[in-house]
Amino acid sequence: MLDDAIQAQLKAYLERLQRPIELVASLDDSANSQQMHTLLTQVAALSDKVSLRTDGDNPRRPSFGVAQPGDAPRIHFAGLPMGHEFTSLVLALLQTGGHPPKVEQAVIDQIKALPGSFKFETFISLSCHNCPDVVQALNLMAVLNPGVTSTMIDGALFQDEVNARQIMAVPTVYLNDAKFGQGRMTVEEVLAQVDTGASARAAAEISQKAPFDVLVVGGGPAGAAAAIYAARKGIRTGVLAERFGGQVMDTLGIENFISVKETEGPKLAMALEQHVKAYDVDVMNLQRAAKLIPASEAGGLIEVQLDNGATLKSRSVILATGARWREMNVPGEKDYKAKGVCFCPHCDGPLFKGKRVAVIG
Ligand SMILES: Cc1cc2nc3c(=O)[nH]c(=O)nc-3n(C[C@H](O)[C@H](O)[C@H](O)COP(=O)(O)OP(=O)(O)OC[C@H]3O[C@@H](n4cnc5c(N)ncnc54)[C@H](O)[C@@H]3O)c2cc1C
Predict the structure, then answer these.
(1) How many A from CA of 347 to the centre of ligand 1?
(2) Pocket of ligand 1 (CB under 6 A)
(3) Protein residue with least CA distance to atom 37, ligand 1
């Protein structure tokens, strides 16, 4: 299942485990179960800190959980986490084994403090490049908070569930059996939705901010460039972004960024963020501007009102709000989004195998 090179690489990663972990498999007689057993046996053989049990009682078969010995697994993989999901498996192993995650301490603290029970189920396809980020965000929450479980479900393997829940786009996330979200989501975005106090806390914090010289609305490449140019002049600069990174977060291969032969969208977005944060720029991510009130009406400074009720003031505002998926404005389009109307052929394509499709554009 895993070739020699991958095994050698994984073995090196597993040396970072700080405590034992257990793989708990729930299998049946199917060929997929055999493949999963082979994979898990190979993984367990790569480190004396990894053990394998095959007496799991998860009704989804084949599936396996990752846990510390003695604990019930909170991370589950229903399907083989190969393809784009292999990284999700590696991170689940490492983080369950005590390897520190690469996220800000404030995010870790927010996850740990989250009260309640959260059962996340993420339907994916192995060819979807947006899915692993969602799986990894939810897995991280499950590692850090005992009230959270996260299950990756390969839609191709659990077709009955896909049909019963009428899932027609991946990733699709369910929380406590109700539809939670669809599409790429960062851990911060998930937290903003489930941590009910977070929005009010953010609004209070943002409203306290002193006026900016330049406030950029939009955190894509254009907004990032504008912020860097402004901050380099030594003026007070802020960036307000619904989703920092913008559209490049939705793509993988970028080959026309001159001087960089090829890169990937999320990598470019991370580089943009690091570049912006190298300057004194106040980045307010996951915040949506709802209304702009010109200086003439607001009494001196321009006001930007946010969805969460907060207001920011600035001497100048740069709007770099980019673009969105182009819609056709035909009846039913909005209602059927992610239920048959999709925007990512290579992510969602596998769910339409054998079905009649129309391609527009
Ligand atoms: C799948 C895909 C593949 C692509 N591949 C390539 C490629 O290979 N090469 C290439 O050159 N280009 C590619 N593009 C296009 C490229 O991503 C865009 O041209 C570029 O991102 C535009 O940058 P931008 O900063 O103007 O806007 P965007 O990237 O659209 O960013 C807009 C920003 O504004 C924010 N925003 C919007 N409304 C609000 C609001 N009300 N309040 C707060 N924030 C708001 C958004 O959250 C986002 O941060 C691709 C795009 C997609 C979707």
Answers:
(1) 19
(2) 217-223, 240-244, 246-248, 250-251, 254, 256, 288-289, 320-323
(3) 321
* Domain with 148 in it: 4-183
The candidate with the shortest Cα–Cα distance to 80, out of 118, 133, 42, is 42
Same domain, 41 and 108: yes
Residue 306 lies in a domain: yes
Q: Which two tokens stand for residue 300?
A: 């001196």
Which amino acid is present at 146?
Answer: P
* pLDDT tens-digit profile, the chain (361 residues): 899 999 999 999 999 999 999 999 999 999 999 999 999 999 999 999 999 999 999 999 999 999 999 999 999 999 999 998 999 999 999 999 999 999 999 999 999 999 999 999 999 999 998 899 999 999 999 999 999 999 999 999 999 999 999 898 899 999 999 999 998 899 999 999 999 888 888 999 999 999 999 999 999 999 999 999 999 999 999 999 999 999 998 787 888 899 999 999 889 999 999 999 999 999 999 999 999 999 999 989 999 999 999 999 999 999 999 988 889 999 999 888 877 888 877 667 777 888 899 999 8
Distance 325 CA to ligand 1 centre (A): 10
Q: Judge whether 280 lies within some domain.
A: yes
Asked if residue 254 belongs to a domain, the reply is: yes
Q: Which atom of ligand 1 is nearest to the CA of 290?
A: 41
Distance, CA 133 to ligand 1 centroid (Å)? Answer: 18
